[in-house]
Amino acid sequence: MEVILAKLLTSMMAVAGTTILIGLVLAFVHQPQGIQGLRVFTAFTTFKTADAPYRTLLEIRDGLLAGDGLAIVQLGLFMLIATPIVRVCVSLILFARVRDWMYVSISALVLTGLALGLLGWIQ
Amino acid sequence: MHAVMYTKSSALYTNFTSAYPPIMDTHLAMLILMLVSIAAGCLGALTGLGGGVVIMPVLIIGFGVDVRYAIGASLVAVIATSSGSAAAYVRDGFTNVRLGILLEVATVAGAIVGALIAAHVNTDAIIVLFVCALFYSAYATLRPPASRPIDLIPDPLATRLKLNSSYPTSKGDTPYSVHNVPGGLLLMGGAGVLSAMVGIGSGIVKVFAMDRLMRLPFKVSTTTSNFMIGVTAAASSVVYLHRGQIEPQIAGPVAFGALIGALVGARILPRVNTYWLRRIFACVVVVSGIELVRRTFT
Q1: B97-118 vs A69-97: helix axis angle to the nearest 10?
Q2: End-to-end CA distance of chain B
Q3: pTM value?
Q4: Which residue has the higher pLDDT, B274 or A104?
Q5: Residue B174: how many CB atoms within 10 A of its CB?
Q6: Do B64 and A44 touch (CB under 8 A)?
């Protein structure tokens, strides 16, 4: 179990990290037509929800289709956030394999909590 | 609906006017941000505090970024650093995976509550809370870990939950038992709220709960805390992602930098004397806390 979890964590981090790097490089060297592109940092002195370009997977998809490097960065950040969530899913499966039903239910409880957070996101 | 919001927001950036003059070129600012995050991730791994306590002041003081963007970026960096180093500890058998998952029930619940509260709280109050956490972190790093005999009297609840385990030491596999599960769960709920509200991993509270309350060996406490931090931060990050607090231009360089920094830190850890590093780091943390408070209230 320990070995599988460790391998999962390292490989997902590697993929997410590489995605972020590719996105950053792309956003640096090339800004396609019709994309806002990089903003000066003074634009971040005040926070507005409406300023955020990529808040949902659908928006990220639209940005990817438009060829925006920042959309790739956001996809990588999303993968990073998903890593621990996937880790809980995998531990649930691993506990089920050894028929440890108590810990299957505890893992399910953690996932329910994470899903509640996601629910607010879907709305 | 999303497409409409996207175009609307694009119009907002172009019309954006700020009271601050642009200090740095955007590209340069992002590169510096990445380099600073590498250092923060490295320091976080070496001192055992995680990157959050360094990244928050850097973003707020150094880059003049709104606290809410800083929280989003810092949380993603915290996921990167904790998951990166968690892998090695899990593999080596230090982490108590069962205990981690059990306590995650409380930290996740706390994190979601914290993220919801944070939306209705003034950012000045968040800064004050952050600085309190900062000062406590500095104090806790300097205090030597309490040495006490390993307690092997089993706790009925911990036994039923199959939490008692063993960990590798110089004398081979050493068994230990877990105590005060309800108290641990309660404090972990608090750690989750704190983590979500101020954008840190709040590993220091988690270690306190496991080390002092649940009486686990120190090495097991720190590694299990590290294992849980990712899930705690993910719970609130999802909420913040939707709220637009995770901005790719800030969180991208920060997360990537912190990830690289944590890898480097873990690699050089055995060869570094962390005694002085912890002291220097604690001073830096205190100074940045004072500066944050001064800025907020002047």
Answers
A1: 140
A2: 41
A3: 0.87
A4: A104
A5: 13
A6: yes
